[in-house]
UniProtKB/TrEMBL annotation:
Pfam families found in the cross-reference section: Ala_racemase_N
PROSITE patterns registered for this protein in UniProt: UPF0001 (PS01211)
N6-(pyridoxal phosphate)lysine sites (modified residues): 42
Keyword Transmembrane helix: no
This protein's record includes keyword Coiled coil: no
HAMAP family in UniProt: PLP_homeostasis (MF_02087)
Domain of life: Bacteria
Protein name in UniProt: Pyridoxal phosphate homeostasis protein
Described function: Pyridoxal 5'-phosphate (PLP)-binding protein, which is involved in PLP homeostasis.
Organism: Sinosporangium album
Length: 234
């Protein structure tokens, strides 16, 4: 595939996603300005990130530290906002704190402590979203809804961290609208105590409409923008 062909392919995907976002915003009485599109570039090369940046995309999401750290270095000149959206082991906290602006997957006290230490060592403040488990699948990560507020308090107290809101993935086979409604309710409870925690990260390629209708502020879109996953090649 030539560079121009790939550019055109990504531009077409972005146009289709933007049309879906615009339609959902009109249907729900929301402004497009309320929605941040995060391009999820896991398994895609840094050249795709550069194409997206050239098309006006400013937020990029990754879920594997080794891949994300490399791409963030290769694209450091683009001035992008980097989102770490995957499950995160505490031993990767130091690396992630070097390049990520926002971690979407904070779900336990040990990770809060590790990220706080790493952010201080890096001389940065690291934005954090509490990941909420909306199903009973432990492999997908997240804290139970009843434990969201206590963990939010821990993040708020941690030096080097900033509490920015909540994130969730819709349950497999479930009603995404119902799940995102619960997430938005929880986000409102957190925001009532911590006004700066105003992000609701919800919605991917298949359920972005339901996410927007139910209050999402940030969408995590990969396949609809970039096509089917392919092996990442360094």
């Amino acid at each position: 595939m030539t560079e121009q062909t790939r550019h055109d392919e990504i531009a077409a995907g972005l146009a289709e996603v933007e049309e879906r976002i615009a339609d959902a915003c009109r249907a729900s009485g929301r402004s497009r300005d309320e929605i941040t599109l995060i391009a999820v570039t896991k398994t895609y090369p840094a050249s795709d990130v550069r194409v997206l940046a050239g098309l006006g995309v400013t937020d990029v999401g990754e879920n594997r530290d080794q891949e994300a750290a490399l791409k963030a270095r290769e694209c450091h000149d683009l001035g992008l906002t980097w989102h770490f959206i995957g499950q995160l082991q505490t031993n990767k906290a130091r690396s992630v704190a070097e390049y990520a602006d926002l971690v979407h997957s904070v779900d336990r006290s040990r990770l809060v402590a590790a990220l706080g230490r790493a952010a201080i060592a890096a001389g940065r403040e690291l934005g954090c979203l509490i990941q909420v488990a909306l199903d009973d699948d432990p492999t997908r990560g997240g804290v139970r809804p009843a434990d969201v507020l206590p963990l939010a308090e821990e993040v708020e107290r941690a030096e080097g961290l900033g509490l920015r809101g909540l994130m969730a993935v819709a349950p497999l086979g479930g009603d995404p609208g119902k799940a995102f409604t619960l997430l938005t309710e929880l986000a409102g409870a957190v925001r009532s105590r911590h006004p700066s925690a105003d992000i609701v990260s919800a919605g991917m390629s298949g359920d972005l409409v339901e996410a927007i209708v139910n209050g999402a502020t940030h969408l995590r879109i990969g396949t609809a923008l970039l096509g089917r996953r392919r092996p990442f090649v360094r």
